[in-house]
Write a structure and sequence with these properties.
By secondary structure, this protein is α/β, with parallel strands linked by helices. It has one domain: Rossmann fold (3-Layer(aba) Sandwich). Helices cover 46% and strands 17% of the residues. The chain has 8 helices and 9 strands. The strands form 2 sheets. A 7-stranded parallel β-sheet has the order 3-2-1-5-7-8-9, sandwiched between helices. A two-stranded parallel sheet has the order 4-6. The longest helix is centred in the middle third of the chain and has 25 residues, at 92-116.
């Protein structure tokens, strides 16, 4: 039985990851603003309601939940896409909001784990957007690129934990559905390419992501950025 920490378990990939881990007999410790009612009363599921975007207080707010636990794996899944629009039209306030949740919240969680618990492996949910820089994806792309390099830095600084940033592929989540409903594919061609490409269900994506975590731990150096679409999983 493993002990797994997962952020953002209310829906989408995070919910599917939690379900998959519980089905394997793992204990799942969830963090996020909203709980997942489908997981209530399931043996081995524990949840702390916490605003991950409150980055200044986050480390303090989660320390008792983490204290003295030894986690086999922490999956940093919670994140936000933001509105698809040109970077010149994106306010500094919006950039900071996306950066806080996608990067700084994960910094606080990693630091809290190191201070108050033990963790063997940290896998941050990244994205191909971190390297492709498509029109309209500015705030998200910048935040995921920053997440990737932050994970690489932590790998150098904390060699007792294996770190990786893993892109799960395109997953049909509420965040993606909102994107398809609001973004104009004529203005942002990458949105149309997403529509026409392979889109995974959360359940399939979760199984592939967990397999990627296993492979990464054994075959790839700590600090790596990997994409499940190129891992042969």
């Amino acid at each position: 039985m493993r002990k797994i920490l997962i952020t953002g378990v209310s829906s989408g990939l995070g919910a599917a990851l939690a379900e998959a881990c519980l089905a394997r007999g793992d204990d799942v410790y969830g963090l996020g603003r909203h709980d997942n009612k489908a997981l209530h009363n399931k043996p081995g599921y524990y949840f702390l309601p916490v605003d991950l975007s409150d980055v200044e207080l986050l480390r303090e707010n989660i320390k008792e939940f983490l204290r003295h636990h030894h986690f086999d794996l922490a999956i940093l899944n919670a994140g936000q896409l933001g509105e698809i629009k040109e970077l010149g039209e994106t306010s500094l306030a919006e950039l900071r909001r996306i950066f806080d949740l996608n990067v700084l919240a994960n910094k606080q969680i990693i630091d809290a784990l190191d201070l108050h618990a033990k963790v063997d492996q940290v896998a941050a949910v990244s994205s191909g957007a971190a390297i492709n820089g498509h029109k309209g994806w500015g705030s998200y792309s910048i935040s995921k690129a920053a997440l990737n390099i932050m994970i690489k830095v932590y790998a150098e600084e904390k060699p007792w934990t294996h770190f990786s940033a893993i892109a799960p592929g395109v997953v049909m989540t509420p965040m993606l559905k909102e994107l398809f409903d609001t973004a104009d594919p004529a203005l942002f061609p990458s949105v149309q390419r997403l529509r026409e490409g392979l889109i995974l269900s959360p359940e399939v994506a979760a199984e592939r992501f967990l397999k990627a975590c296993e492979v990464t731990r054994v075959k790839h150096p700590s600090g790596s950025f990997l994409d499940v679409r190129t891992m042969g999983i």
